UniProtKB/TrEMBL annotation:
Transmembrane segments: none annotated. Residues 190-242 form the PAC domain. SMART domains: HTH_ARAC, PAC, PAS. InterPro entries: Homeodomain-like_sf, HTH_AraC, PAC, PAS, PAS-assoc_C, PAS-like_dom_sf, PAS_fold_3, Sensor_kinase/Photoreceptor. PANTHER family: PAC DOMAIN-CONTAINING PROTEIN, PHYTOCHROME-LIKE PROTEIN CPH1. This is histidine kinase. GO terms for molecular function: DNA-binding transcription factor activity; protein histidine kinase activity; sequence-specific DNA binding. Residues 1-66, 135-188 form the PAS domain.
């Protein structure tokens, strides 16, 4: 039986058929997987008549590409005709070349049966409830566009690998999160918060719940992860002064990352004193201005190594990114991305010249 309260299902939009459903989802709607996947029941057939119009409106927006995902409360009509109130998040797992969704994922949790607030909550970029799933048998992973956006990636990029995800974890959170994922593979469910570092150096707080999916022999066959960007909640009420400071700092660093930078110049550009500069940057990004500059430069260094030509060297890349000490550069690079810069360079060369 399913361990945990999340029901998950995956639908093919073109055929309107169910591709996958975990036991918890089947339990929610009261049908077996075989009954759900036989093509006789459309998604609308499981929805309470009073909720259909609202659900279809949001689904059409999702399918067109207007939104990446949405969350709402609705009611399922179970096989025994009973009503099951649920809160569902629906997201596009795969889109066609014209940005229309061809595969969607649905995550459901039981909702308060007394709730009368059944409004839709479309998720915008940076605030979406996003999710991913990994099937161990096929070694295939899927994720919503919202997850790529949360990680600071282009929605058209390939699905991030596990190594990509680990590389973007904040160094102080990486060991803990990896250990938590190992526990899920052993059949446990976990929910916790951690930080990720986007390619531009920005730090975001993520609340992630990961649960195992079990096969008919009760072995873990895959994982489902649900992520929510909670950065703004962590930061508390916005300060216009602080917002202006970090905006100026970000713009200044983006323009001058490959030149010598000093904190006094940043403070002058932001029109604040050094103490205020540190306070605002720490509150917004969770790091000092020096650490932010370093993260931006490391991201540029990684991009250079990934696009290496025959003349590219680790030392040359470090110097171009204003790292004067190659040993410190190698150490910081490994902490940020989980591998040595020489390993990134070697992999890029093998891919480019094979």
């Amino acid at each position: 039986m399913e361990r945990g309260g999340l029901g998950f299902a995956k639908f093919d939009v073109r055929s309107r058929k169910l591709i996958f459903a975990n036991p918890r989802f089947c339990e929610m709607v009261g049908y077996s997987f075989d009954e759900l996947s036989d093509g006789e029941r459309l998604f609308a057939d499981l929805t309470h008549p009073d909720d259909i119009e609202r659900c279809i409106t949001q689904l059409q927006r999702l399918l067109r590409g207007d939104i990446d995902s949405y969350t709402l409360e609705k009611r399922y009509i179970r096989k025994d005709s009973s009503v099951a109130p649920v809160c569902v998040t629906v997201a596009a797992l795969q889109r066609d070349h014209d940005d229309s969704a061809v595969e969607i994922g649905v995550i459901g949790t039981p909702a308060d049966p007394e709730s009368t607030d059944r409004q839709s909550l479309p998720c915008s970029h940076g605030q979406s409830a996003s999710f991913w799933c990994k099937d161990f048998g096929s070694d295939i992973a899927h994720c919503s566009d919202g997850l790529k956006i949360l990680l600071g990636r282009d929605p058209n990029d390939a699905v991030p690998t596990f190594e990509d995800f680990v590389a973007q974890l904040h160094p102080e959170d990486r060991e803990r999160v990896v250990e938590e994922l190992r526990r899920v593979r052993n059949g446990m469910v976990y929910s916790s918060e951690h930080r990720i570092i986007r390619p531009d150096g920005e730090i975001r707080w993520v609340n992630q719940t990961v649960m195992p999916v079990f096969d008919e022999t009760d072995d873990v066959a895959g994982l489902i992860g649900v992520c929510l960007d909670v950065t703004e909640a962590k930061r508390g009420p916005k300060s216009s002064s602080a917002h202006n400071t970090v905006t100026v700092v970000k713009r200044y660093v983006d323009l001058n990352w490959d030149r010598p930078l000093n904190i006094a110049a940043l403070a002058t550009a932001a029109d604040v004193n050094i103490r205020t500069l540190f306070k605002h940057c720490k509150a917004a990004w969770g790091v000092t201005p020096n650490e932010y500059i370093k993260n931006v430069r490391l991201t540029h260094a990684r991009a250079m190594l990934q696009m290496a030509d025959k003349s590219t060297t680790v030392l040359g890349t470090a110097l171009k990114c204003c790292f004067q000490n190659q040993g410190h550069f190698a150490r910081d690079y490994r902490l940020a991305f989980g591998e040595r810069p020489s390993e990134t360079l070697e992999r890029a060369r093998q891919r480019r010249w094979r």
